[in-house]
Amino acid sequence: MTEYVPAQDRYEKMRYRRCGRSGLLLPVISLGLWHNFGNLTPFETQQAILRTAFDRGITHFDLANNYGPPYGEVERNFGRHMDADWHTHRNELVISTKAGYDMWPGPYGDHGSRKYLIASLDESLKRMRLSYVDIFYHHRPDPDTPLEETMGALDYIVRSGRALYVGISNYGPEETKRAARMLREMGTPLLIHQPSYSMLNRWIENGLTEVLREEKVGCIAFAPLQNGLLTGKYLSGIPADSRAARDARYLRPDAITEEKMRKVAALKKIADRRGQTLAQLALQWALRDGVVTSALIGASKPQQVTENAAAVQGPDLTEEDLAAIEAALAE
Ligand SMILES: NC(=O)c1ccc[n+]([C@@H]2O[C@H](COP(=O)([O-])OP(=O)(O)OC[C@H]3O[C@@H](n4cnc5c(N)ncnc54)[C@H](OP(=O)(O)O)[C@@H]3O)[C@@H](O)[C@H]2O)c1
């Protein structure tokens, strides 16, 4: 295995934004390991994707306890990558993981109890060969566990040194407000929210962004390319090496509708006019409002990371561009 020497100029290639009111800066493009880091992807491919990301100034890698396949395998592979490439760069990285979806059988391996969250993070740290994560998330709201218990567990996780910061994911506006206030009172501010957000999925504009602004909480938008739809790759069918072909569970062919493709084709024309790819336009758009700290992409090839990271060099979005995008989305 060749020794990894990161690009010297990596920090000149990326932009960093402050996460809410915290001291933490995040790259405007972050890399998620949900797909392509389990046991179906060669270690060398994973390594090339991670190295390419860091060489472009992407300092934030996002994981979860049950990313795989099988569950836990992405964290286990990440531990191997840590040993191979990242130990001497640990302080240059922001590593996150989560718990909140199903992880192990029985009543204690799912949802939002203190028992589940603390045990899960302990297992995650072992798999990743880390002594702490930078951000630990509750992955989804749990209507049956008192929010006080879940937020109390997050507070304890920080105080016990297992995580430096905490976040929540997939919470609605009201529960986000309550969570932020509870954590503030406990003395462990809510760093960040991780919701889905893209040109084709704008639910956060319906109240959540306002709460995040009011509470001064950061935001990392996941799936800003809508599983790859917003790259234009499905405009003339389903490529054999795409997510829709490989993993129809997560991008069902029937989700690639004619209506969406009409919008995508119109958006691609705007990207062409601006001299960039549709993926780059979609990422710039997701970041247009400062409330979004970072856009959290996935990648199956190093070249996708290179293309997506270059979104930061795109021309500023003008009022005219934004109006054209709204018109394309109304097609
Ligand atoms: N909190 C949550 O509940 C939650 C849920 C989902 C995801 N996430 C996080 O968000 C991250 C990103 O999610 P996502 O992977 O769905 O994001 P995405 O960026 O919307 O989609 C990524 C996929 O699009 C394709 N792609 C990316 N760039 C491309 C390019 N330039 N050209 C062509 N194709 C390109 C690749 O798939 P193919 O090449 O295989 O087609 C890639 O794997 C996850 O890894 C995870 O960390 C969190």
Q: Indicate the proportion of strand residues.
A: 5-15%
CATH class: Alpha Beta
CATH superfamily: NADP-dependent oxidoreductase domain
Given as residue ranges, the uncertain stretches (5+ residues, pLDDT < 50) are: none
Overall mean pLDDT = 97
Shape: globular
Number of helices: 11
**Could you say what the CATH topology is called?**
TIM Barrel
Could you say which structural class the secondary elements and strand pairing correspond to? Answer: alpha/beta
Largest sheet: number of strands, sense, barrel closure: 8 strands, parallel, barrel
Bound molecules: NADP nicotinamide-adenine-dinucleotide phosphate
Description:
The chain has 331 residues and is of the alpha/beta class. The chain has a single domain, classed as TIM Barrel (Alpha-Beta Barrel). It is 38% helix and 14% strand. The chain has eleven helices and ten strands. The strands form two sheets. Strands 3-4-5-6-7-8-9-10 form an eight-stranded parallel beta barrel, surrounded by five helices. It has a two-stranded antiparallel ribbon with strand order 1-2. A hairpin with a 6-residue loop joins β1 and β2. The longest helix has 17 residues, at 258-274. The chain is globular. The mean pLDDT is 97. It binds NADP nicotinamide-adenine-dinucleotide phosphate.
Question: Secondary-structure blueprint of this entry?
Answer:
Elements: E1 16-18, E2 25-27, E3 29-32, H1 43-55, E4 60-62, H2 73-86, E5 94-99, H3 114-128, E6 133-138, H4 147-159, E7 163-169, H5 173-186, E8 190-194, H6 208-215, E9 218-222, H7 243-246, H8 258-274, H9 278-286, E10 294-297, H10 302-309, H11 319-329
Parallel strand pairs: 3-4, 3-10, 4-5, 5-6, 6-7, 7-8, 8-9, 9-10
Antiparallel strand pairs: 1-2
The site of NADP nicotinamide-adenine-dinucleotide phosphate has 29 residues, from strand 10 and helix 10.
